[in-house]
Each structure stands twice: as C-alpha cells, then as structure tokens.
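Handout, section B. The chain below has 430 residues.
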Amino acid sequence: MQPPLRRLTLLVTAPVAVSALVALPASAAPAAPSAGAAAPASSALTTTAPECSEEPRDLPTWKFIDYKEMRRELARIQRISHGRVNVKAAGKSNRGRTIYTATVGTGKKVFLVTSEIHGNEKTGTTALLRMLKWLGTSGSPEAERLRRTVTFVAVPKINPDGAGLDRRGNDNAWAEVQKDFPQLAGRPPAWNYLNTSQQGDDYTERPGFDLNRDFNPNLKYVPKAADVPGESAQPGWFLNPESQTLRDIYTKLRARKGKVDVYVDLHHQGACVREDAQNRLLDVAVDYPPLPDKFFEPGGKYAPYAKTYAKKLSKQLAVSAARGIENRGYIPARYPHAPTRDLPGQARCSLAMIGTGTVLFEVRGQTQTMGHYMSERFTRAVTSGLTNMLNDLSTGKVYGIDPDAFEKFPGTVEDAAATALRHAHDGDVE
C-alpha cells in the first residue's frame, strides 16, 4: 500500500521554498510517463528534457536545500512529529559543520541511508526530508507499521562542506590529515585525494577527498603509513571526519540494535544515461556492492568476510528498490557493475562485507550538468524506491525475493562522455 497521493501544482523550474519541497508524503509520486525520455511540456512534474550533455555548466544551486535550510527543516519535522523524529548531532565535518542524524521508528530492523557523500549529488537530501516528514507525521496504517517494525536513520548531508561548495569532494588538505595522523608524515597523499581540476571543479586552492573511498570493513582500523597512498582495489583508511562520523553512526547503531540490516547510499551519475531495453533516459539506476566473488573464496583477500558478506540480501534489496521505482511509473536500471570490479573502500562495500545489505541509488544528472531541472521527478523516483524497500523489509517480503531477478532489469547505455565520466577516478564515479 502507498501513502495517498497529493497533487503538486508548482513547476519544478520555479523557485520553491523548503517547506514546499518536503510537503508531500514520502511516496506520493503520481505515475510518470512510461515511454519516452520525458513528459509533455505541460506536465507539472516533468518538462521536455534539455539537450543531453555531460559538459559542466554554471547552473544555479540555490533551489536545492542548503545546509541552513536542512537544519531548519529537520527542526521543524522534529517539532511537528511530536518527537517521533529524533534529530541528533552525530559529528562534525572538517570545517566544523554539524553532521546530523534523524531517526524515526523503534523497530528491530535498522535501515540507514545517507545522502550527499558527494556534495554535488543533492536530490537525496530532499528525498530524505520528505521520507522523514511522512514517516514522522502520518497516521496511516502503513506508516504506523513501519515505525513499529523498522528504525529508519537518515543522514541528509554526510558531506556538508562539499555540499556547500557544490562539488564532489570534501574540504580537507593532506597537511591537515597528516596533522591528525602524525604517523602519515612524509607519505604521499592517499589516491582519492583531489587537488587538481575534475568534472568542472578546481581543487587546487581548496583540496579535498572523495569520501566514498575512505571506508574499511575493519571498523577499528587506524591509518598505517604502509597503507597510504593505496589504490582503488584496497580498503580505505577513515582519514576524514565525515567518514569517521558515518563509521561511528553505524557502530553505535549496531551496538544498540544488534545489527544494521540495510544501508543505502544516494548518489547521482551522468546526465545522458539510458536504459538499454527501450533506450529511454533513465531516472535511477541501482546496484549491489562491486566485489568479485573469487576474493571470498578460501585464500582470497576477502575470505575473512565470506560468512558475513551480504551479497544475497543486497541484491534482494536492489530488486525491491527497482520494483518500487518501476511500479510508480519511473524508469529504473542496473548500474554498470562488471564481475571484476573491486572497490572495497566504498561505504557500501565495506558495510556489506560485515553483514549489512547495501544498495546504491544513482540518479541521472548532477548539479553541474542538469541543475534543478527535473529534480522533483527524480526526488519522487528515489522516495518510491526507498518506500518499497522499507515495506519489503518491514513485512519480511524482501527475504523471499529471487536475487537473480536483479539481472532481469534493463542495463544502461551511455554515450562516450557519460562513460568517460563514470570511468573517472579509477573506473568509477559513484
């Protein structure tokens, strides 16, 4: 069952206040056109898509929810939910911004989701605020069941410094890392350090890190000089305050609830990606962790995690997400995932190795290529996928899903520019 629909009358291209962006129930998404790349120009939710281009452009970001607006909206949701939504400070970014968690529900099953680990991938923040408002205020039987059976924990901006700069990386220099970890003195920067120009952003004056390469399945890992600079096929180091904060959120949840069942990481990808069944511009691609099976065999580098690796559950959850997106009229696909792809430093890979089912959401287009265009449609597609996952986890239906059904969803087709974008940073841009 889906929450009741409400009609949205605002054009997505018009300036919209934060309260309007989060006013709809989590999954209140009218069916989108199922054929073609876009709806007719008269649609309030989708207009004719602009020419596809991966070329970075100077596009406005003020229509997205910024850090101050997010804080105000979290406080408002906590207030109007009468305490059902509990907002807490979980840590600090490198530039001192508070990183917040917002928790709703008391169930045994734990669903953790983050947005803006890359600061120019912003749709997820709006989606999470919308989810929190609906879960915290709705009196529907569905919302009541979800609150009773699931503990939903959202981190709407895990990289607030990067979000403020509207760029992929955070704001942290290698010299600052070496100050925090003196044992790294004299070592070259970690491989995921950003100090040049990338995707239209200049990191030369304000360098940073791709935070989604900074994770390790050993939650007690302390950076070692011999492990730096490392490479994409090796785990990360928890070098940054933001990745340390997510580790701490996860560790505390596991200590309090016994297990974190689900982790979802909300991202964006190239603007021109299509699904390969009907060659339509997709809305959201989903994926399970990119870790080669052979490495979990005896003697393999991930063999210690062979019994805890949650590959099956991750695929079942990805199927649930894709079905939720598709059932609401949006266009899902499988994110490109070669069998040899090996990215253990990603949060979703590290956490999957230690028993959490993890799923990647990749919305089409980033702020530098599409701006606010079609953000309402994409937000609703994301909330549709998340809501279906929550329901399938709540009822236990997810455990009966055939994991191999994931391979039956359309794959993706990219133009040369989109492929180049995805292959940036050692074979992967997520």
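Note. The chain has twelve helices and 14 strands. Compare this with the example in section A.
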